[in-house]
Specification:
The complex is a heterodimer of chains A (118) and B (106). By secondary structure, chain A is mostly beta strands. Chain A is built from no helices and eleven strands. In chain A, strand 7 and strand 8 form a beta hairpin.
Chain lengths: 118, 106
């Protein structure tokens, strides 16, 4: 059974940093692109970043470029999102998802909440 | 690429046929996916490549369209279908979602 479990969310002050993790199981992690998607309170879904199987390609939404870094450790079946320079508008539930590239995100985690507030 | 969904919300009864539309700001061929999202749950992929039904999704869900105009249809709305539905283009980065359509009980 495919499972994705996010962790690392919490309350952080503006300008602070946080590292989210996503533990994957039930599939060959290194064979898939992976993605982070977020949902701010009362808002819709927003794609944040994705990463190729070998980590050699990474893409970001403009609003997080230069502040967030997506990475992966295939031997540990883990996906990460290092977030720095956090702003109030980064407050959201962050989901990791298995990315079939053109064919959508077929498995999602339950999400981890991030709150940026003083 | 901007994705515009309509309506933003709708009220319908169990058994109704429901149609949600999604328009892309430029052609995305058939690189269009549909998701269902319920509060507190993980989003669920319903349709990929505009019209292909994801494994395990009931056949009352269907998708159509290509280029810039797409449709998600629920042929007979069931109680478990009340949720928010999102389209998403997978043609080019940044990969964008539509604003969502909330399907509520009439």
């Amino acid at each position: 059974e495919v499972q994705l479990v996010e962790s690392g969310g919490g309350l952080v002050q503006p300008g602070g940093s946080l590292r989210l993790s996503c533990a994957a199981s039930g599939f060959t992690f290194g064979s898939y692109w992976m993605t982070w998607v977020r949902q701010a309170p009362g808002k819709g879904l927003e794609w944040v970043a994705n990463i190729k199987q070998d980590g050699g390609e990474k893409y970001y939404v403009d609003s997080v470029k230069g502040r967030f870094t997506i990475s992966r450790h295939n031997a540990k079946n883990s996906l990460y999102l290092q977030m720095s320079g956090l702003r109030a508008e980064d407050t959201a539930v962050y989901y990791c998802a298995r990315d079939t590239y053109y064919y959508g995100y077929d498995y999602w985690g339950q999400g981890t909440p991030v709150t940026v507030s003083s | 690429i901007q994705m515009t969904q309509s309506p933003s919300s709708l009220s319908a009864s169990v058994g109704d046929r429901v149609t949600i539309t999604c328009r892309a700001s430029q052609s995305i061929s058939s690189y269009l996916n549909w998701y269902q999202h319920k509060p507190g749950k993980a989003p669920k992929l319903l349709i990929y490549s505009a019209s292909s039904l994801q494994s395990g999704v009931p056949s009352r869900f269907s998708g159509s369209g290509s280029g810039t105009d797409f449709t998600l249809t629920i042929s007979s709305l069931q109680p478990e279908d009340f949720a928010i539905y999102y389209c998403q283009q997978s043609y080019s980065t940044p990969l964008t979602f539509g604003g969502g359509t909330k399907v509520e009980i009439k």
